[in-house]
């Protein structure tokens, strides 16, 4: 049997979900997102104090697998994109709806749609190699993964716009300054940082943690986020089979003539 694409563990009041596609830099494919969504659902029966998102390998996740899109003929590509972005939006909303704090452990690149896992987290530990980058304007995709739905809320529309329009890389130091990272630590100290946070949260009153997170995302805000994510999906689909995007993918993959 193939190794799971998402590893799940629950220890005490802490659940940990680990992206497990390291040979492909944990790039997002429908099968991985399906497993991630199912894993989040499976945690409903546990009285948790927090959920940790982590990843195996040198990269946290490099977002959608561009080669996976480019290798599909038109028609099939749109169907694949619809499934992928739809699943990603489902996962984002599951994280937004998570009753307890979400922690992200980021040891390397987190790019494209996978940045949603950081944008939707409450506490984010960055290693020194970690960075955030969109790549959409270079590849030819429309932003997904909350780049327009979540990031402007975190850092402001003007900053979010400039970062995406220029495809500017946000290194670990700047991520900390912008508030995208909660703490920047040596890579060897990432696990200790996560353990410190999970231990601290386990000592808090769970009902208060749940109330705090729920109040931070009232129904009206969630509706706005869900609508914005759906607009991202629709715009993504409108571009995925254009000549311009096909040429952009070829350039990005080094396949341009």
UniProtKB/TrEMBL annotation:
The keyword Lyase does not apply. One of its GO terms (molecular function) is delta(3)-delta(2)-enoyl-CoA isomerase activity. It comes from the Bacteria. InterPro entries: ClpP/crotonase-like_dom_sf (IPR029045), ECH/Chromodomain_protein (IPR051053), Enoyl-CoA_hydra/iso (IPR001753). CDD domains: crotonase-like. The keyword Kinase does not apply. Keywords: Isomerase, Peroxisome. It is found in: Peroxisome. This is Enoyl-CoA hydratase/isomerase family protein.
């Amino acid at each position: 049997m193939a190794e799971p694409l998402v590893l799940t563990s629950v220890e005490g009041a802490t659940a940990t979900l680990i992206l497990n596609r390291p040979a492909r830099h944990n790039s997002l494919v429908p099968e991985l997102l399906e497993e991630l969504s199912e894993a989040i659902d499976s945690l409903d029966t546990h009285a948790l104090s927090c959920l940790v998102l982590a990843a195996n390998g040198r990269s946290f996740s490099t977002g959608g697998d561009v080669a996976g899109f480019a290798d599909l003929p038109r028609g099939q590509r749109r169907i694949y994109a619809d499934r992928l972005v739809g699943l990603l939006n489902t996962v984002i909303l599951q994280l937004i709806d998570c009753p307890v704090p979400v922690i992200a452990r980021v040891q390397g690149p987190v790019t494209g749609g996978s940045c949603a896992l950081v944008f939707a987290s409450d506490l984010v530990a960055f290693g020194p190699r970690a960075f955030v980058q969109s790549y959409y304007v270079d590849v030819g995709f429309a932003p997904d993964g909350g780049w327009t739905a979540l990031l402007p809320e975190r850092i402001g529309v003007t900053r979010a716009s400039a970062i995406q329009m220029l495809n500017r890389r946000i290194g670990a130091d700047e991520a900390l300054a912008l508030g995208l990272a909660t703490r920047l630590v040596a890579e060897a100290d990432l696990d200790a940082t996560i353990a410190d946070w999970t231990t601290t949260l386990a000592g808090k009153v769970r009902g208060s943690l749940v109330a705090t997170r729920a109040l931070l995302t009232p129904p009206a805000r969630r509706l706005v986020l869900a609508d914005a994510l759906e607009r991202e999906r629709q715009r993504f689909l409108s571009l995925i089979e254009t000549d311009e995007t096909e040429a952009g993918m070829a350039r990005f993959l080094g396949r341009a003539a």
